[in-house]
Amino acid sequence: MTGPRIPSREEVRAAHQQGEEAVLALFDNLVEVVIGLAARVQALEDQLAKNSRNSGKPPSSDGLKKPAPRSLRPRSGKKPGGQPGHPGQTLKAVADPDDVKVHRVKQCGQCQTCLEGVEAEAYEARQVFDLPVVRVEVTEHRVEIKSCPGCGQVNKAAFPTEVSQPVQYGPVLKAQAVYFNQNHIIPLERTGDIFSDLYGHSLSEGSIVTAGQEMAQQVAPVNEAVKAYLIQTPEPVHFDETSVPVEGKRYWVHVTSTSKLTYLVSHAKRGTQALDEIGILPQRQGHSIHDAYASYFQYHDPRHVLCNAHHLREFVFIQERYQQSWAEAMAKLLVEIKETVEMAQQQGQTCLAVEQLAQFDRRYDQLITEGLQANPPPPPPEPGPKKRGRVKQSQPKNLLDRLQLRKRETLTFMYDFKVPFDNNQAERDLRMVKLKQKVSGCFRSKERAKTFCHIRSYIANVRKNGQSVLEALRLALVGSPYYPPVLQSQPAFPA
Predict the structure, then answer these.
(1) Is pLDDT at 59 greater than 70 in this prediction?
(2) 249: Cβ contacts below 8 Å, ≥ 6 apart
(3) Which class for 185: exposed (0-12), middle (13-18), buried (19 or more C-beta within 10 A)?
(4) Of these four, 121, 125, 371, 468, which has the most CB atoms within 10 Å of its CB?
(5) Using one digit for the tens of pLDDT, what is the confidence trace for 233-265?
(6) Are β-strands 249-257 and 237-246 bridged in parallel, bridged antiparallel, or unpaired?
(7) C-alpha dist (Å) from residue 475 to 316, 328, 394, 458
(8) 320: helix, strand or coil
(9) C-alpha distance from residue 96 to each of 99, 121, 420 (Å)
């Protein structure tokens, strides 16, 4: 891109000789250059000033310039640690220990009299919680082969269905391999080291990968049922996405989730093509919570809801970079509405009073008006060939336009208590994807990314429903994967 052209000294001298009009024309040209450069500098400085605290950028992008923590939430006043009434997790003695070791008194500590034949009067007990030494157990399955004495037919018994190879790993061992590698994001080599150290058996990387592929196949039907539920359910559903490298290219992991269900899928695209092929948002009719990414608004059937956590971060950025008071006031207003809604819920109310709604609505509009006055629209373009795309505006103006156009989507949580204030649920569901990227750097193949999404979706659903992840992985490998109870009584919109 070529930079702006600055007139030379000869051109300035020539304009001076031509008279006042030529000098003014030259000056006007320089003003345009200065305005354009100022806009570019502002845009670059804004870009450099963005971080995870004042924008939608993830914390992993902060690098060494990580900002000091600054929560947008007010102080609760609670002391650190467990709160009153918290049950705690103190180690307590059990009434029926697995093993009892008696340490006998052999002689008197004073006169050295032998006490081995004296019966103990009482016992003092202490309990030690520990793990036994575990080793891999090999079970050989043998089937009988018999010849019929009547007809000579050779008969052979059948192996159990799960015993299909001459030598193979069992479901418990494979479940643990997947548990370490996929649940705790431990790399393949270190997962093999864990098996060697804990069980005295070295597990190859290929065996761990194969176990993951088998697990993904077994849990795929569960994930399809989750997908169908997320399309049909009238409860609010969260949407988000994050980038990950796959085969050296930029891919995206898309998440759709509720408090009880998670569905992850990897795709080469981020926008409309990916959303169409995933097929959840295009078919939804209920509340769908997301950030203001334009591709989400291509679909008109869902009832769109915007994440106000994103808005709060944007208000921080505008206050820091542009010193506009309306942004701070709007942030305080949204937090005030949120706290009012929470207080009403605690009191058993199902909605705010009409007067409260009208007051909040009026204050919202007043702040939008104040912001628009401080950020007037850009001047109309000069006559001539039209440039493609929208006229560029400042970031405060873009945010104000969104808040004005999407007012209902921004304040849905105020009108419907079932709708959350933010999209933090989806961001939490994507956290392990970023941890995987931090540990491994990338996915070496599209199949590895697909396997990861299948297994992580299943694990998230198990955890959200309070079940044991390790046991659920074992059940999946024996053909009985865990189905969350909500899938058994799926609500749907009326036809």
Answers:
(1) no
(2) 268
(3) middle
(4) 371
(5) 999 999 999 999 999 999 999 999 999 999 999
(6) antiparallel
(7) 48, 52, 55, 12
(8) helix
(9) 9, 21, 47
Which residue, among 408, 398, 406, 238, has the nearest Cα to 314 in the 3D structure? 398
Residue-level pLDDT at 10: 82
Q: Residue 47's closest CA among 427, 317, 391?
A: 317
Candidates 429, 419, 415; CA nearest to 351 is: 415
Cα–Cα distance for residue pair 224/454, rounded to 1 Å: 10
Mean pLDDT of 337-358: 96
* pLDDT higher than 50, residue 495: no
**Which residue matches tokens 């702006």?**
4
Distance CA 208, CA 105 (A): 52
Q: How far does Cα 363 stand from its chain's mean position? A: 33
Chain segment 152-200, per-residue pLDDT in tens: 999 999 999 889 999 999 999 999 999 999 999 999 999 999 999 999 9
CB atoms within 10 A of CB 65: 8
Tens-digit pLDDT profile for residues 451-475: 999 999 999 999 999 999 999 999 9
Q: Six-digit token pair at 32?
A: 């345009």
Written as one string, the DSSP assignment of 10-23 is HHHHHHHHH-HHHH
